[in-house]
Design goal:
heterodimer; A: alpha+beta; Immunoglobulin-like; six-stranded mixed β-sheet; five-stranded mixed β-sheet; 5 helices; 13 strands; 38% helix; elongated; B: mainly alpha; Cytochrome C Oxidase, Chain A; 63% helix; 0% strand; globular; disordered N terminus
């Protein structure tokens, strides 16, 4: 029995190490394609968490499984097991190990967080909208604040239920968010009505947008392509329709798009919340409840 | 050792009320109130589950096919509200009401009338919430967090609207829970039998104490926030209205100051159930009893310092993110102590796999998974990616369903013979367990993957790339719906005509097993005198009471 148990333990330790390693490697693929510098860092952290989590799950779960398999007792056996009430050493060990583990996890997470910060992902500067009249009127030519980076600072305006993106230097407004690849992008997030959330899964970044605040937000897209932008903070009836597409462009494409968009006269954007509100889909169960009317579609060049 | 005659402690024994009608009366008997809570909560669980199934049916395909967006938003809002405030809370309080006086050797709870009042507010809350679906404005549609400003937009313009009713229900629920908590805490502190020192209390009593202390300490924050939000909505004040210098983020702090500890208010009693059931079916004392007891109080303290981890993506400054990441991870330590203690309890035990044991082992295993994803969520950079996605929904349901609801089921099966005086059917119980385990994992496991891929929660329509996993989750949800049928059949038929239960069918320790099944109207013929620690399985003298006193 002792040999059997030793063998079983060895096999189980082997399985645990192997599985946690494999799952840790695969964890990267459970996330959408990484398209920003920040995304790679989050991927490393997630892989680390999955590896450690698998070890804990298989370690503790293995002991539960062993007990279920080998300590099963016939219904006719009415006797009690040995009355073991505790073991101080063991209890100290299983208090100290989790403490060390969470210190390790917290330190690694902190390290990743700092590195994301140096890449310019998440510094939250709260510029108060009311104190900054430059932001009061979206779309005015002179709205670019003089005290921030001269590089492209794109204004993101969220409202029920549309995204619009304003490029102050060219005075372009669009429903598409075009970003140059491999450059630190500076956004100013603002909401006209309720809370919204700026979330691009491929970038692994998310930030709530709060009415009457202008929130600075930075990250570095590093893979050319098209990615969905979702509203991540519940914003009312047509919440699910509040989507846009992020285009990460080569510098050439980006310049072309800016130039081309600047030639287009501003027109009301196509907006799915407005269309659905005007023409509700026929559904088996309709509530006929009052809903907030969608804000007028933004005027956009493209 | 002296014994206390019944007449000294509780007055003359009242005759045992035989009629089923007592369950529909304003009874002050804690056992009647306990059953009233449990049955009422289960009815709301079925309604909340039905709403969840409609939500899952809508999510079978990417586009809208069944309900419109307003109704969808109302359904998930009321689903969450019902499951938390009308299922888990009252089910836990019902079980505690029934068991705590029996476990500590008391004849009654400390404030029987207050207790009954607290219960009778529960159906009021439920009826208010359900009736709000028929208002012209519709029911509340802002999710169970009810974040302003979206929650107070009130497009109908009516004074009586869904959000108004929801906030009123929250305030009443707060009052009810505080009354219940005052009663349970006082009962545990004041009414323990002679010899029942704190470190002789069963863990279930410890976890009830810590959970109800959390209610007393944290719940006023939510009730206050709900009243302020009600003023913003109905009277035009601007506590949380950004357009008038109010701050919507303060609402989030007040909300989560209560609503994170609320998870422990729900989970601690579940840990208590595991700590009773596992020793009884492993025939071994609970391993490390004292540390398990202390860890309950530690969870109680630490859980009041972690709330901002729900707000990592809000306007939360860096220092706050880091501090709350550290405190949130720290909760894993006392929680880990409990899990290890349960594993060590069954280790080298003599395991019997009746239904309560199956649910307890299932619940502990699921909690292991939920705990791991919980630590992941505390890691700020990872949380920022999955915040407000289905990963959180999956994690949360592994806690509230796969762990806590499993524990409530374990508790109901375990104490069913005591409560009803009859045995339930083992076969139906096992069928119920397997359907629940499979359904729950099909339902909630794929949600983690959906969240990792970026599917946001609270959306009625979604990107077609997420279809496959949503179908699996929905199938799991329907299976979970079906799983309640054998449970209902079992409970009803066993209560009516099950085999008569002996006083102690599980040969378990604990004072509740020393009295008759069901217990007489004042619980004990004579108040027992407690002489040793609980969980004396395998010990020479495993009776916790002085045998001379009986």
């Amino acid at each position: 029995m002792q040999i059997f148990n030793a063998l079983l333990l060895t096999i189980w330790v082997g399985i645990t190490i192997f599985t946690s390693h494999i799952l840790g490697q695969q964890a990267y693929d459970w996330l959408p394609t990484a398209a920003a510098a920040e995304a790679e860092l989050v991927g490393h952290l997630f892989s680390f968490l999955v590896t450690l989590g698998t070890i804990v799950f298989l370690g503790v779960g293995g002991m539960i499984a062993y007990s279920i398999l080998f300590y099963r007792t016939a219904a006719s056996d009415r006797s009690d097991a040995p009355p073991i009430r505790g073991n101080s050493t063991l209890e100290i060990v299983w208090t100290v190990i989790p403490i060390l583990l969470v210190i390790w996890i917290a330190s690694y997470s902190y390290d990743i967080y700092q590195r994301m910060d140096t890449l310019g992902s998440l510094p939250l500067a709260h510029l108060h909208l009311l104190e900054s009249p430059a932001y009061a009127e979206m779309g005015s030519q002179d709205s670019q604040p003089s005290d921030t980076q001269p590089s492209e600072q794109i204004e993101v305006l969220a409202k029920q239920w549309a995204w619009s993106f304003h490029y102050p230097s060219q005075n372009i407004t669009s429903t598409e968010l075009h970003l140059p690849v491999n450059q630190s992008v500076h956004l100013v997030l603002q909401s006209e009505d309720v809370l919204h959330g700026f979330f691009v899964p491929n970038f692994r970044i998310k930030q709530d947008i709060i009415p009457n605040q202008a929130i600075a937000f930075q990250f570095t897209p590093n893979r050319v392509g098209q990615y969905p932008l979702y509203d991540s903070q519940f914003s009312g009836t047509y919440f699910a329709l509040m989507q846009a597409t992020v285009y990460v462009d080569t510098p050439k494409q980006y310049a072309q798009w800016l130039a081309q968009a600047a030639t287009q006269p501003p027109v009301p954007a196509v907006n799915s919340a407005n269309s659905e509100h005007a023409q509700p889909p026929s559904l088996p169960v309709r509530s006929h409840w009052h809903t907030v009317s969608p804000a007028p579609p933004p005027l956009v060049n493209q | 050792m002296t014994t206390i005659p019944a007449a000294d402690a509780g007055g003359p024994l009242r005759p045992q009320p035989a009629s089923w009608r007592r369950y529909f009366s304003f009874s002050t008997d804690h056992k009647v109130i306990g059953v009233q809570y449990l049955v009422t909560a289960f009815l709301f669980f079925l309604i909340g589950g039905l709403f969840a199934m409609i939500v899952r049916a809508e999510l079978l395909t990417p586009q809208l096919d069944i309900v419109d967006r307003s109704l969808y938003n109302g359904l998930f809002t009321i689903h969450g509200t019902i499951m938390i405030f009308l299922w888990i809370f009252p089910a836990n309080v019902g079980l505690a009401n029934y068991l705590v006086p029996l476990m500590i050797g008391a004849r009654e709870t400390a404030f029987p009338v207050l207790n009954a009042l607290a219960f009778w507010l529960i159906p009021v809350i439920g009826i208010l919430l359900l009736l709000s679906f028929f208002l012209p404005s519709g029911t509340a549609q802002a999710g169970w967090w009810s974040y302003p400003p979206v929650s107070i937009q009130n497009p109908s313009g009516h004074l009586i609207n869904g959000e108004f009713v929801w906030l009123l229900a929250m305030v009443i629920s707060g009052i009810s829970s505080i009354m219940g908590a005052v009663n349970l805490v006082t009962t545990i502190v004041q009414m323990r039998a002679p010899g029942m020192t704190f470190f002789r209390m069963p863990i279930y009593v410890w976890t009830t104490l810590s959970a109800q202390l959390l209610q007393l300490f944290c719940l006023p924050a939510l009730t206050g926030a709900a009243i302020m939000l009600l003023f913003d909505l109905s009277l035009g004040t601007d506590f949380f209205t950004p357009s008038k210098q109010g701050d919507p983020i303060i609402y989030q702090h007040l909300f989560w100051f209560y609503s994170h500890p609320a998870v422990y208010v729900m989970a601690l009693p579940a840990f208590g159930v595991f700590s009773e059931v596992l020793p009884a079916f492993a025939r071994k004392p609970l391993f490390g009893y004292k540390n398990v007891a202390i860890s309950s109080m530690l969870i109680c303290v630490i859980s009041t310092t972690v709330w901002v981890h729900h707000m990592f993506a809000s306007a939360t400054p860096n220092w706050m993110r880091i501090v709350f990441m550290a405190t949130s991870m720290l909760v894993a330590v006392p929680t880990g102590i409990k899990v290890f203690a349960w594993v060590a309890t069954i280790w080298r035990g003599k395991l019997h796999f009746q239904t309560p044991m199956l649910f307890a082992l299932g619940g502990v295993s699921m909690f292991l998974f939920a705990g791991i994803t919980g630590v992941m969520l505390a890691a700020v950079p990872f949380d920022i990616h999955v915040n407000n996605t289905y990963f959180v929904v999956g994690h949360f349901h592994y806690v509230v369903f796969n762990t806590i609801t499993m524990a409530i089921y374990a508790g109901i099966y375990y104490w069913f013979p005591k409560i009803t005086g009859r045995m339930y059917s083992e076969g139906w119980g096992k069928l119920h367990f397997w359907l629940t385990l499979i359904g729950a994992n099909l339902n909630f496991f794929p949600m983690h993957a959906l969240g990792l891929q970026g599917m946001v929660r609270r959306i009625a329509s979604y990107d077609p790339q997420y279809t496959g996993l949503n179908v699996v989750a929905s199938v799991g949800a329907f299976l979970l719906g079906m799983s309640t049928l054998p449970f209902i059949a079992n409970m009803v038929s066993s209560w009516l005509q099950g085999r008569k239960a002996p006083d102690n069918p599980w040969n378990a320790t604990g004072l509740e097993w020393t009295t008759s099944s069901p217990p007489p109207s004042e619980n004990f013929a004579e108040i027992p005198i407690v002489t040793s620690e609980p969980y004396g399985y395998g010990e020479q003298n495993r009776l916790v009471i002085d045998p001379l006193s009986t």
